[in-house]
Amino acid sequence: MNGSVGPMRVLVTGGSGLVGRAIERVVKEEKLLAKHSSDTRAVFERHRPTHVIHLAAMVGGLFRNMRQNLDFWRNNVFINDNVLQAAHDFDVVKVVSCLSTCIFPDKTTYPIDESMIHNGPPHETNFGYAYAKRMIDVQNRALFQQYGRRYTAVIPTNVFGPHDNYNIEDGHVLPGLIHKTYLAKKEGTPLQVWGSGRALRQFIYSLDLARLFLWVLREYDEVEPIILSVGEEDELSIKFAADAVVEALGFEGDVIYDTSKADGQFKKTASNAKLRKYLPDFKFTPFRAAIKETCDWFVANYDSARK
Length: 307
Fold this sequence. Notes:
Blueprint: E1 2-3, E2 6-7, E3 10-13, H1 18-27, E4 32-34, H2 40-47, E5 51-54, H3 62-67, H4 69-89, E6 94-98, H5 127-147, E7 152-156, E8 158-160, H6 173-187, E9 191-194, E10 200-201, E11 203-205, H7 206-219, E12 226-228, E13 236-237, H8 238-249, E14 255-258, H9 273-278, H10 287-300
Parallel strand pairs: 3-4, 3-5, 5-6, 6-7, 7-12, 8-11, 9-14
Antiparallel strand pairs: 1-2, 10-13
Domain NAD-dependent epimerase/dehydratase: 10-231
Family: Belongs to the NAD(P)-dependent epimerase/dehydratase family. Fucose synthase subfamily.
EC number: 1.1.1.271
C-alpha cells in the first residue's frame, strides 16, 4: 500500500475481525495479520512492518463486560503492551490503535471530545476494558515523550457491519439485534429487544471506519487520539436501530422491549468536530443503507458468521 509517506508495510493485528475485514476490503488486498500475545514478537520479526493498525483486543457487549471485568483488564493490558513495545523495538514508524467511546468518564458533560478521556472513572459496567484501553493513550504519550514516537489512537463510536460477532449473549447491540430478528422471523416468534430501547448511540458503518482508519494511517500526525464518528445530530435510539433492522430483514411479528434488562449508559454523545476540521467533506453511508447491506451479508453468510 502506498501513502503520502512512501511505501508502507502494514501489519493489522486482529485483522480477521469486524474492522480488520473492512480495512482489508477497502484496501482490496490481504494485509499481514497477527494474533496477539506470545507470538507478537515473532510476527514483527517475520514481517518487519513499517506501520501497524492495532485492532487485536478482547471485546464483548454489555453483559459479558459486566461478568468479566478482570479478564477484560488483564488480557487487553497484555495485548496492548505486547504490540506497542514490539512496534517500538522493531522501529515501526506509526501505530494506530483502536479505542472506544465507552472508555470516557461516566459522569461527564456532552458532547464528549478527545480531551476528556481521563477526566473521571468510566461506567462501572465495563471499567476493566475501559481502563485497559485508556492505557494505550498513556503509553502513546510516554513513547512520544521518551522516544519521539508518533503512535496514536482512534476512537470510533458503535461500529457495525459484515464479519461482526453476532452472538446474542455476548455481542454488541446491533449484531445481537440482527441475529435475534433473523431467528424470530424464521421461527415465527416475537422479537425481544433487551432494555427499554430509549438509550442513544452513534453508529458507524465498518466500511466508513476503514476508510477513515487508512486516512489516519497516512495523514493524521497527532499523538492525541481522534474520534471517528458521525455527527451528534445522527445519534439514534436503540428503538430506531431495531426498527431499521426489522425493516431490512422484513420481520412482521411483534417487537417486545424487555425492561428488566439493563440499558447501559443512556448516551455517550461524541463530538466529531476534530475529524470535520480535517475532513469537512467526508460522506458517511446513510444508516438504513448500511443496515440493509449488513443484514443482507448476515443472511447470505449465516452458516459461517461468528455467532
